[in-house]
Design goal:
The chain is mainly β and 374 residues long. It has four helices and 22 strands. It has a four-stranded antiparallel sheet with strand order 1-2-3-4, with helices on one face. It has a four-stranded antiparallel sheet with strand order 5-6-7-8, with no helix packed on it. The protein has a four-stranded antiparallel sheet with strand order 9-10-11-12, with no helix packed on it. The chain is globular and about 55 Å long.
Length: 374
């Protein structure tokens, strides 16, 4: 909004708005870079402290809601022995959960009595993703594409959203539209996670250690409407997968269990089951081709002070077990120009990660990592 002197605002309000905007800009410019703040904390005698007990809690539970009755009934029927997943589709204001081959989605910010259900044939759902529908392929009502992965199939489901009668709630109604022509085989590869870009690209990681892209079109003639493309395999790996029997494959596979896309820098962070962190580049435009830049195996060093290592002139302490990485989140350029991602560890600490270069050049993980206890 441009502050200008007019009849609706008036000169005094316009002047105050300009003054506030200028002050906000100056405050933002004066805000130290996250890396500078972390560097300064390294030289403090006690950079971190626990929350005082006499202070109000940092987090309070404002409200709790029960899970949909049909989901609870389905889960109880499985007696806790089935495959269950859950998550949030924040862009739709919906929570989702799976129990074996059943998928459920409902409103998480308010209970409207609606819980959509979709069945994925007879196979248990092993990964779920949500992508914006690419324009010109489906009917206009389908705004998003739900991706369900089972051990044998990849299934696309159309997601239709409609606003409330008064237009105040754009996500009031949601329906799932089956797309039977957009179901393909996994070719024996069990998918472990699905992540999507803002442009609608769909990436999947397989238990075979590779990253795939799920591509779909309107289809014409002999062309398939939907296909999966392996982005991380070379000729040698391809021959190994299809020619050599499993008995002659001696290398252990370390599957990717989590992927996060940095839309600002066009990179993908991937975490493997063996606690390796991989970095991939999507190119300057974010359209690919996907290129693996680096892989780090020992981001968490047990010799560091937080995990039992000794600081100078510090008494010997019992060594703590090495924590694992449970979550990765990109950092925006507004937060830091030099730190690009933060990894959350199982003991609650944060591991800040920096990369060199940009999306149009080589990118590598910097081993000089900043660590912050929370």
């Amino acid at each position: 909004m441009a502050w200008a002197e007019d009849e609706a605002i008036g000169p005094d309000v316009a002047s105050a708005g300009l003054h506030i905007s200028e002050r906000i800009g100056r405050d933002a410019a004066a805000q130290p870079d996250l890396e500078e703040a972390l560097e300064a904390s390294r030289y403090a005698s006690h950079p971190y402290s626990s929350h005082p007990k006499e202070w109000p809690p940092l987090v309070e539970v404002a409200e709790t809601r029960q899970l949909p009755p049909m989901l609870i009934e389905r889960y109880n029927a499985a007696a806790g022995e089935g495959t269950a997943l859950c998550g949030i589709f924040s862009e739709l204001h919906r929570a989702w959960a799976t129990v074996d081959n059943s998928f459920y989605v409902w409103r998480f910010d308010k209970w409207d009595g609606q819980c959509q259900e979709h069945h994925a044939n007879e196979q248990a759902i092993c990964a779920v993703g949500l992508a914006r529908a690419k324009p010109g392929i489906f009917v206009e009502a389908i705004q998003y594409i739900l991706v369900l992965a089972t051990p044998v199939e990849l299934i696309l489901v159309g997601v239709c959203c409609s606003a409330s009668a008064d237009g105040t709630d754009p996500y009031a109604e949601l329906s799932l539209q089956p797309l039977p022509e957009y179901v393909i085989s996994t070719d024996g590869v069990t998918m472990t996670c699905i992540t999507c870009t803002d442009k609608g690209q769909i990436f999947l990681s397989g238990r075979d250690g590779h990253i795939y892209e799920l591509q779909y079109t309107t289809g014409s003639g002999w062309r398939k409407r939907c296909r999966k493309v392996c982005l991380t395999t070379g000729l040698g790996s391809l021959l190994s997968r299809w020619v050599l029997p499993n008995a002659f494959k001696f290398s252990a596979v370390d599957p990717i269990v989590d992927m996060v896309i940095d839309e600002e820098r066009n990179t993908i962070y991937a975490r493997t089951e063996g606690m390796k962190l991989q970095l991939f580049d999507l190119g300057a435009s974010g359209e690919g081709p996907l290129k693996k830049i680096t892989e780090e195996k020992n981001l968490v060093d047990p010799r560091d002070a937080p995990y039992g290592g000794r600081r100078p002139n510090a008494p010997r302490a019992a060594r703590s077990p090495k924590p694992s990485i449970v979550c990765i989140s990109p950092l925006s350029a507004m937060e830091s120009k030099w730190l690009h991602a933060v990894a959350v560890l199982s003991d609650g600490k944060r591991l800040f990660i920096s990369t060199s270069g940009g999306s149009s050049s080589s990118v590598g993980l910097n081993t000089g990592l900043q660590r912050q206890a929370v």
